[in-house]
Amino acid sequence: MVDSTALAGGRQGHERLAELVPVVLRGLAAGTAERAAPGPAGGPAAVAASVAALEPLVPERGVGAEKALSELATLLAAGSVDPADPWCAAHLHCPPLAVGVAADIAAGALNPSMDSWDQAPVASELERAFLTAIARLCYPAEPAPDAVVTTGGTESNLLGLLLAREKHQNVRPVCGRNAHHSVARAAWLLGLPAPVVVGCEGERMSAEALGEVLRTTGPAVVVATAGTTDTGDIDPLREIARVCREHGARLHVDASYGGLALCSTRLRPLLDGLAEADSVALDLHKFGWQPIASGLFAVRDAADLAALNVQAEYLNADDDTEAGLPDLLGRSIRTSRRPDAFRMAVTMRALGLHGMGELIERCCATAREVADAIRRHPGLELRGEPTLSTVLFRPVSGDVAEVRRALLESGTAIIGRATLPPGEVWLKLTLLHPHATAADYQGLLDTVAATARAGAAIAS
Ligand SMILES: *Cc1c(COP(=O)(O)O)cnc(C)c1O
């Protein structure tokens, strides 16, 4: 039996991990085998009962590392929705690559904390080198771009507005009707006025309408989206950048979903104009296939990040900084911080930009083929041609929201929903499975149509 108080690091830590990791893997295998579908059957009540069976979850006397790991890893796998199953396709919720998850073991065992050099000597240097590469990817022609690690698009959008507020007092956020909810929340958190909402043509922000808005607002920060959460559409970035320049407005692009398409020479033109932005949000826990949290925030001018500088005597005393110790505290709004860049760097080094771009191209190609299959399907209606890997559709009859819930409740399939003008509910497939082909989705399309027909028959 492994001592439950054994450490993961030190000279022997790897031996303890070598004993415990297989227990976790056996639990994953057992739980996955127990679950017949991409999700657990029975909905919230069945899942709650599986956890209640462990009461007391936190016992007076521990059960030991092996038993706790085995029980809970099995429980987790049995009761999870697995994004590595093609029929789990509701959200921008990716199946992580094994290489990234394996890298996380090293990061977890050594536990570098990214708030000071004396807690993360090489991890901080690796992070810096990785972020330099990401900043160059976003801003190939700029002399001094930079990037920082965030928990995801939500934090990156907050930083985008924060840097704008530090530059121009009384800055007014402006975003499209299609923008992510985190933009309005960031404005609220920062004490800024609620964003002015600009109309869309289709699901893309109208540059013309933006021009009208900027004519009457004072200093503004415009948030454009490259890959909307609902439809995967990309705002006309180059035109928006031109309008922003005309009016002296700052531009932040929320490319949480679409940003990594920069890795693909074929898809990169979709992001034309991105490099005109003052800042960009990118998520590697979407396209990028990293475990959460793997967000990045890039800026055109490294000097803008000075707004995040802060002094804490015990972490970045002036004399330490003058003596040559890198000051890391201003690289985040957090203090203790996981070395999330480590697994991202391992993955990007393993695949290269080319390998990453190819995975993204595959998802986008599969989305187009699935859209074709929907167009041909007599029981389904397609909303429009996908831009990235999001496909919106609905059954020709039946209650759309009911179909989604029925499939979720049985664990059969996890599909998303989007309410789009004029207030219609659509089903959404967000395809992030890099190895799935259109053939993997044909059965799902038939199941959706059949479930809708069965529902409609019961209702009538
Ligand atoms: C996912 C997403 C976000 C939120 O990002 P988190 O990583 O969940 O914080 C913001 N904007 C867009 C466009 C997204 O797709």
UniProtKB/TrEMBL annotation:
Modified residues (N6-(pyridoxal phosphate)lysine): K286
Keyword Lipoprotein (UniProt): no
Molecular function per GO: aromatic-L-amino-acid decarboxylase activity; pyridoxal phosphate binding
Biological process (GO), any one: carboxylic acid metabolic process
A Gene Ontology cellular-component term: cytoplasm
Matching Pfam families: Pyridoxal_deC
Family indicated by similarity: Belongs to the group II decarboxylase family.
Name of the protein in question: L-2,4-diaminobutyrate decarboxylase
Keyword NAD: no
Highest taxon listed in the record's lineage: Bacteria
InterPro entries assigned to the protein according to its UniProt record, in alphabetical order: PyrdxlP-dep_de-COase (IPR002129), PyrdxlP-dep_Trfase (IPR015424), PyrdxlP-dep_Trfase_major (IPR015421), PyrdxlP-dep_Trfase_small (IPR015422)
Cofactor dependency: pyridoxal 5'-phosphate
Alphabetical UniProt keywords: Antibiotic biosynthesis, Decarboxylase, Lyase, Pyridoxal phosphate
